[in-house]
Amino acid sequence: MPTIAYDKTDLIRLIGKEMSDEELKEIIESIKPSVEKIRENEIVLEHPADRIDLFGIEGLARAIRQYTGIKPGLCKYKVKRSGLVIKVDSVPVRPFIGCAIVKGLKLDDSSIKSLMNIQEILHETIGRKRRKVAIGIHDFDKIKPPIRYAGVSREEKMIPLGYTEEMSLKEVLEKTEKGKEYGFLIQEGKLWPVFIDSLSIFSFPPIINSERTRVTEKTKNLFIDVTGTDKLAVLQVLNILVTNLAERGCKLESVRIRYKKKVEETPDLTEKVLEVSKNVVNKLLGLELEGKEIVKLLKRMGYDSIEYSDKLEVIVPAYRVDVSQPVDVVEDIAIAYGYNNFELLEPKISTIGKADELEKFSTRVRNLMVGFGLLEVVRTVLTNQEEQFDKMEVERKNVVEVENPVSKEYTCLRVWLLPSLLKVLSANKHVEYPQKLFEVGDVVLPAEGETMSKTVRKLCVAISHSAAGFAEIKSVAENFLTSLNVQYSLKMLDHPTFIKGRACEIYVKDKPVGFFGEIHPKVLENWKLEMPVAAFEVDLESLLS
Amino acid sequence: MAMFVLTEEGKNYLEKGLPERRLIELLKKVGRITLKEAEEQVENFDIALQWAKKKGFVELKFNELVLVKEPESFPEEEALKKIDAGEEVDEKILKILIQRNLVKKVVRGEVDKLIGKEVTNLSPELIKTGIWKKVKFKPYSITTPAQKLWFGKLHFYKEFLEEMKERLIGMGFVEARGPLVEMNFWNCDVLFMPSDHPSRSIHEVFFLKNPNTGKVLDKKLWERVRKTHEKGWGYWDPQLAKKLILRSHGTAISARTLYKLRKEDLPFKMFAIAKCFRPDVIDAKHHIEFEQCEGIVVEEGLNFRHLLWYLKEIASCVGVEKVRFKPTYFPFTEPSVELQGYVDGWIELGGAGIFRPEVTLPLGIEFPVLAWGIGIGRLAMAKLGIKDIRDLYSEKLEVLSKKFLV
């Protein structure tokens, strides 16, 4: 979801019609992006990830023109063959390229800015931070063909953009900012990808361009190189870039890419044709649209379409890289229709609602606990081993551990609730006593099976005041079990968290399901607690079954 | 020191008169009466007959009762009155009253000393001895601050969730649950999220160090999902799909539920309040754990207009009546819609859509399925007036005991 700022004056100029801020906001939000801010001369949008064609200001203006009827229907772009051939050697780390020549530029500050802007945004999004796709934009008139895309040794030299001295590619990775940032993307390859003309290396994708082919206000013609690891994405990015530039009145020329075994002409702006049945549209949207109406709605979204009996042939422009299935077109029909223009329809289906058994049981238990005078707390499942084990004076056990924790405090999932409650007690030493807490919550235990773990619902009670002890917690535990009609037996429990001789294990049908007792002063010390604590923890699922 | 008080029976006779008096009053009226008739008309007849005969007031002649002597007075009644008032009575009568079980002896303790004084506490002793009649109660100040009370209480956020649940069950939704540790496959791949989708990166999802890989249970489904990705996106990373993660959205539960669904279960509505995890920096607006309320509606012939109807109804479950819809994007639904509600201004309540065929077909469902998700935590905050998301999981007892669901 990239957030992109646009020059409002430039946008209005590209739309070709004055609009108030309110109008502009309403139209843009009806199309899809969210308007975060509109200010004096700036409009900031948050874009959904699919409509990459709207990221650039030119594409955004195009969509607004179509939607508002200023210029509805398909935008056609002419591409002339330039005759330029680019030979592609085998470059395993970055095998795919797409190139284009864009002529007749009138670059001013705002258009250079928007070009650099869109380049960065495409890198970040569909480009997956340049790994999947990277873009190089050059002054075409400074390139001396023949051009070759090749894998070369890291000792080859170039002058990177923004530098005056020649460096080896290895040095580019070590010395330049971009080299340090993106070097890892190619480092593993033996040969590194470069574009070379008859003079020298002028592009080192996905790292940096050369100083020699730098784009300036005087640049009239552009050479665009797009490289990557995913061919489809490479060609899509190229199409979006060149159609945006064509919107500014530039002329597009294609380039012949000669791989070892085949030849391709890029950019290829041939439209895709999707067959969409009228019935599918109406069934999915709950409408009764005539073919003619659908054609008209599609024009607002930049499609041309032809009606054939009960089907529509929809012509999808090359920049609409997100459209692959009829359902994608159906959504655009719904957008053109206006989401808020749909009449809501109550479905005539009847079903019987039901609570999950364990959830229902949990609610009963929670209500019971409130009757016992206990205050409910809700704690995180994420925690750390120090709290789960060390502070409780128990040996560390196997737990579900996070690979990428955000802090030392949250590195694993809890296996019992008691540490969570002791933590709450230790955070409330300044508050009046007694403090009587409970939590009904989940713990996750390593186990065999699909997810190699098991989510288990538990109840924990902790009572703290100057006279809190075994008798009180025994009475809570046993009255709780009795009130649920549970047949249980007790066995003495030797557990380092509790004082020896003051802890019990609860058995139901010969299976241990929980325990209660008086917390050992060593544990209290670990939590910096100065009041006695008695606690009770039980597995709710085994009580339910 | 001992004193005497009325028993329940004594109190009863004090109010209604002695039984023998009642018998005599009757005979005075009718002259003579059969035993059977008298028994019907006089309460406690046995006692009345016993004492009236003993005192020589009545006699039995040919099965009929006759009044032989009219009593001048009933000293026992006078004595009962006196004892009730706390006055002394003649010992002879007292003995009879004790014998008749109309009066009992109680031991007076310290309470005796309170007679005529102002007392603070009303004690059981004062009530039992009747001395409460001879004391004054000290009036209290009603403005003295009340003592702080420890009380049990449900958590305000859980109460909010319960209310939402109740409404959804009322709408015919069946509650579902799912594991907190999830296989990427269910969390993302089944939902047609491409392997390199940015929201699957380590910045958006908690991956696990241990255990880190799950087990493929249904190889056929696995193959169907692989083919769908390869056709739709051109690639699929099965190693990534096997990785275990902490569930990052509730839609994983919807995917699992759809998989288990049988034809005979239809029509079917499911919801789940799902705890989800995301590696965020914890601050007032972000937390690593949060809840989503997720749901699906499964039945042939459902469409976009039905979806919008459900969204409006679901918003009204939590008291949001004014809603609007906006296009948005999710990799697993098409069309997709953002639900906005007016709470304290327009806020985003959640997202919804119709599952893409790439999601439903591999799961064996051949018609559109409506799916929605509500950012329930954010909604709870708006409704409860909470500004800091960390307060939903607060460890401050002051917050927990004071915050109420209103």
Characterise this structure.
- The complex is a heterodimer of chains A (545) and B (406).
- Chain A is 29% helix and 30% strand.
- In chain A, the strands form six sheets. In chain A, strands 4, 5, 6, 7, 10, 11, 12, 13, 14 and 15 form a ten-stranded mixed beta sheet that branches. In chain A, strands 19-23-24-28-27-26-25 form a seven-stranded mixed beta sheet. A three-stranded antiparallel beta sheet of chain A has the order 1-3-2.
- Chain A is elongated, with a radius of gyration of 33 Å.
- The two termini of chain A are 46 Å apart.
- The longest helix of chain A has 17 residues, at 231-247.
- Chain B has 406 residues and is an alpha+beta fold.
- In chain B, the strands form five sheets. Chain B has a seven-stranded mixed beta sheet with strand order 8-12-13-17-16-15-14, sandwiched between helices.
- In chain B, α1 (8-16) packs across α5 (75-84), α2 crosses α4 (45-54) and α5 (75-84) crosses α6 (91-99).
- The chains are: A alpha+beta (545), B alpha+beta (406).
- Chains A and B meet through α2, α8, α10, α11 and β19 of A and α8, β8, β9, β10 and β12 of B.
- β21 (401-402) of chain A pairs antiparallel with β10 of chain B, so a sheet runs across the interface.
